[in-house]
Design goal:
The complex is a heterotrimer of chains A (about 280), B (about 290) and C (about 300). Chain A has 12 helices and no strands. Chain A is an all-alpha fold. Chain A has one domain. Chain A starts with a helix and ends in a 7-residue tail after the last helix. Chain B has one domain. The chains are: A mainly alpha (about 280), B mainly alpha (about 290), C alpha/beta (about 300). At the B-C interface, helix 1, helix 2, helix 7 and helix 8 of B face helix 1, helix 2, helix 3 and helix 4 of C.
Chain lengths: ~280, ~290, ~300
């Protein structure tokens, strides 16, 4: 018996199939499968309880900024040092990256759906690349939107410092996202490892005097911010603080972060490609 | 007779009161936590501060024996041995272990919601109050293990390494301070953690919520205070409230600066009541039995 | 003493009524609880276990009032839920011992008893493995072990054979039969697999849209109905089947052009088949009375209601 679908001329299928959707019975192309995986990842991550919590945290941050903007003498330097660095760079940006970055692959492992991903005909390096891109789009989108909102709520001071933080935060959020995504591939409890990394290495070691803070992403973000914000005198106060901070130039920090992102991507990709996952159930 | 061939056996002996189940829940909870390597790493990191203080007290005692002037010199900095130093130490311990607590909440309470543990517990001969009490005591025990026990150890070390036991007689308030502050930390943090974990059981959102409360509320309190220097807003900083209540226990609270200990205690009591309401409304069998 | 008795029990979740004015009394033994999804089976189990209070009415299980003595009752009842109600980090033996302790057993006795029960259920070899890594079959047995550890008089089993392979299912049903017949346990078995109920249970309780539509011994329920026949004939059937239907006979299934399974009204006499056949010039070859299986019985009760 002739199958109706296979008997259908390929040209007809091509004419009636909307771009990006699968023709019934026809084998989906690699590109459309990748596109669907990208959309699915975005959807699955976005419509989750994490998003609600991220929304609540962002809202609370905005309330803090609204309160801060009513201070008697707000200025750009204070806004950057008292609000954006401790609230956004140290807390909100990495938390948003953990929220989505670590659960892009880690969530699949936790929910037992990784097996479906590995069973798909999409090559593993492509799967990782798509997941990496989707994770970065979400993390960078959320982080930069939050930054934009915070700076707008901060009034004139906020608008002044927005360009100072923008590129640093873009690189920083992608760096965090790549790191946490890689940890999700490398470790079974990647989320917990990511959180522990952030809490101990970024928050504790990142604020220690000396060279040890150079293991943290926040250090390079701060170097970029201090470099770009020199016009507003943003940076460590006092000689001792400046000397113990051991800042590098903004350009060098950006290069290191970019290189770090590329290395993290490659490590994650190779690991995902070669790894034999034992927790598939 | 081999156990296998014995077949099914009857059991009809006297049963214990359901309150014993609370102890079983606590013991099981601690077993689960201590069986995971990641918790030992976090506990180890959390105890670094304790080791630093322990070594400092030992070093100070050794140097004081060799040269009393050095001891007097170090005392000027009040790094340890005083009520405020112990209060600071316990606050630092509580801050460092925020992540440990978040994970404990995820494993002990969130796990029960995600994996059907609540059904397992509530279908036995205990009430939901026994279950809630068991979980709260487990979290409280972890908090005490990181805050109260190390502080007690330092207090003992400090007293024992002086030339006489006068330190214990001269500073009895420190002991009550450690126990009082420890109790406040254990009660408030366990209730708050349970309430969050019961409503947000998945690991990532739970940790985000817990750390959000931990980080954002102090910032919000400070931002609101600075508008018109109204210190009442500092009550929003829950960890600050606990610290002020702890300082009152140690007898080191500056009463001239608002908010006072009584106000902090009232706020924390209201918070605990709210958490209890949230917990009990979530631990309703109608929701959890599938 | 009845196993359980419900007196005008109703329960609603908001505006959704899960149980409606149920009054019944069930004797000890093995009882199968059947009904569609959302029929009210789980709600009934929760009420029997004292986990929820009915919106209306009173219930008694094993002589205990469920409202005021729920905790004592749970000490005498073992519950095996359908979902994985386990603590994955615990070893099997610890999980079962904890269940015993939570039912009031002293620690040492709970541990000894946990070893006994695990051996009885053939889980002795894996008792020191975290139960999160158990297979589906092992998890089902472990849940049964946790329900049995305190030697309950009544076992409430929600889908005990779900996810088991044929051998595993067979073993589980043999175990349940053995517990009921050799050790005198009463069982309430809630399942969609009617074959399981047919094999293990003596009584059946049919729940449909929050009400009990049928209850009693399976044999007695079958005996209420004797009107299922397989007819085969020679000749043109169209007129014959039409006349049968107009006489109140229900066509249940048509296997071929010359045979049919029919259900007759309660006052039907077999000779009427011959009378109608003669009217239609059809020669009846066979009239074979059919044994009703549990599925037929379930559908008949639901349709009759």
């Amino acid at each position: 018996m002739t199958d109706n679908f296979t008997a259908r001329p390929a040209s007809t299928a091509a004419r009636t199939t909307p771009p990006g959707s699968l023709a019934r019975g026809a084998a989906p192309s690699q590109q459309s499968a990748c596109w669907h995986l990208f959309l699915l990842t975005l959807k699955r991550q976005f419509f989750s309880r994490q998003t609600l919590v991220a929304l609540s945290l962002s809202a609370l941050s905005c309330v803090i900024i609204m309160a801060w903007s009513r201070h008697p003498d707000p200025d750009a330097r204070k806004f950057a040092e008292q609000i954006v660095v401790p609230l956004y760079v140290v807390f909100l940006m990495p938390i948003l990256a953990i929220c989505y970055g670590s659960s892009v692959i880690g969530g699949e492992r936790e929910d037992g759906t990784l097996i479906y991903l590995l069973m798909s005909p999409i090559p593993r390096p492509w799967v990782y690349t798509i997941k990496f891109l989707a994770g970065n789009v979400l993390v960078a989108g959320w982080s930069l939107s939050a930054l934009l909102l915070m700076c707008l709520l901060g009034g004139a001071s906020g608008r002044d410092v927005l360009p100072v933080f923008f590129s640093a935060c873009l690189l920083g959020s992608i760096g965090y996202s790549g790191l946490f995504l890689g940890l999700g591939v490398l470790f079974r409890h990647g989320t917990i490892i990511s959180l522990a990394y952030w809490f101990f290495l970024e928050v504790l070691f990142g604020n220690m005097p000396g060279i040890i803070k150079r293991v943290s992403v926040a250090y390079y973000v701060r170097c970029m911010v201090y470099d770009a914000g020199s016009a507003f005198d943003i940076g460590p106060r006092g000689r001792v603080a400046r000397e113990t901070f051991l800042a590098i130039s903004g350009q060098a920090a950006a290069q290191i972060l970019s290189l770090g992102i590329a290395v993290l991507f490659l490590v994650g990709l190779v690991s995902f490609w070669r790894r034999e996952f034992r927790d598939l159930n | 007779m081999a156990i296998k061939t014995a077949g099914y056996q009857k059991w009809d002996e006297a049963r214990r009161a359901p309150a014993w189940g609370v102890w079983a829940i606590v013991r099981t909870g601690l077993t689960i936590v201590l069986r995971r390597r990641v918790f030992w790493i976090l506990i180890g990191l959390g105890l670094l501060n304790f080791l630093f203080n322990f070594a400092f007290i030992y070093l100070k005692a050794t140097l004081t024996i060799q040269n009393g002037m050095i001891g007097n010199f170090l005392d000027n900095y009040q790094v340890t041995g005083t009520g405020s130093a112990f209060a600071e130490f316990m606050f630092a311990q509580a801050s460092i272990t925020a992540l440990l607590l978040a994970f404990s909440g995820s494993v002990l309470i969130g796990g029960d919601y995600r994996q059907g543990g609540v059904v397992y517990y509530l279908s036995r001969r205990i009430d939901r109050r026994h279950y809630v009490m068991g979980k709260l005591l487990t979290v409280g025990a972890i908090v005490s293990f990181i805050t109260t026990l190390p502080a007690l150890a330092l207090y003992l070390e400090y007293g024992v390494l002086t030339s006489s036991f006068d330190y214990f007689l001269d500073h009895p308030r420190i002991l009550t301070g450690i126990l009082g502050y420890g109790l406040v930390l254990a009660v408030v943090q366990s209730l708050l953690l349970f309430a969050i974990a019961a409503w947000v059981p998945r690991t990532v959102p739970l940790v985000m919520s817990w750390l959000g409360v931990f980080v954002l509320f102090p910032l919000l309190a400070e931002a609101l205070r600075a508008i018109q220097d109204n210190r009442t807003w500092l009550l929003l900083n829950l960890w600050g409230d606990m610290q002020r209540l702890g300082s009152w226990c140690f007898g080191t609270l500056n009463e001239n600066k608002a908010p006072g200990a009584l106000t902090c205690a009232s706020i924390l009591t209201v918070l605990c009541g709210l958490c209890l309401f949230l917990i009990l409304s979530r631990v309703r069998a109608v929701e959890v039995v599938q | 003493m009845p196993l359980f008795a419900l007196d005008h029990v109703s329960h609603s979740y908001g505006s959704v009524s899960a149980l409606r004015d149920v009054t019944l009394q069930v004797e000890p033994g093995t009882i199968g609880l059947i009904g569609q999804n959302g029929a009210g089976k789980s709600t009934l189990l929760k009420i029997l276990l004292g986990l929820i209070r009915p919106t209306q009415g009173r219930s008694q299980v094993l002589g205990c009032d469920v409202g005021s003595e729920a905790r004592e009752l749970r000490g005498r009842v073992g519950f095996m839920p359908e979902a994985d109600a386990l603590i994955p980090d615990l070893y099997g033996v610890d999980l079962v011992a904890l269940a015993g302790e939570l039912c009031g057993m002293p620690r040492k006795q709970a541990l000894r008893r946990a070893h006994e029960v695990l051996s009885y259920l053939d889980l002795g070899e894996v008792r020191y493995r975290p139960c999160g890594g158990y297979s589906v079959g092992m998890k089902q047995r472990l849940k049964l072990a946790a329900a049995l550890v305190h030697d309950p008089e009544l076992l409430l089993l929600d889908e005990p054979t779900a996810g088991l392979d044929p051998d595993g299912r067979d073993d589980m049903l043999n175990l349940l039969q053995s517990l009921a017949r050799r050790h005198g346990k009463s069982l309430i078995l809630s399942t969609h697999l009617l074959g399981d109920i047919d094999r293990v249970c003596e009584q059946v309780l049919i729940v449909h849209r929050g009400t009990v539509r049928g209850m009693g011994r399976i044999g007695d329920l079958r005996a209420q109905f004797r009107g299922l026949y397989r007819l085969s004939w020679r000749g043109l059937a169209a007129g014959f089947l039409d006349q049968l239907q107009s006489a109140g006979v229900l066509l249940r299934s048509t296997d071929s052009t010359d045979a049919v399974l029919v259900e007759t009204p309660s006052d039907w006499a077999v000779r009427r088949f011959y009378e109608i056949a003669a009217n239609c010039n059809v020669i009846l070859r066979d009239i074979v009375p059919q044994e009703e299986d549990l599925e037929d019985l379930y559908h008949r009760v639901i349709q009759a209601a």
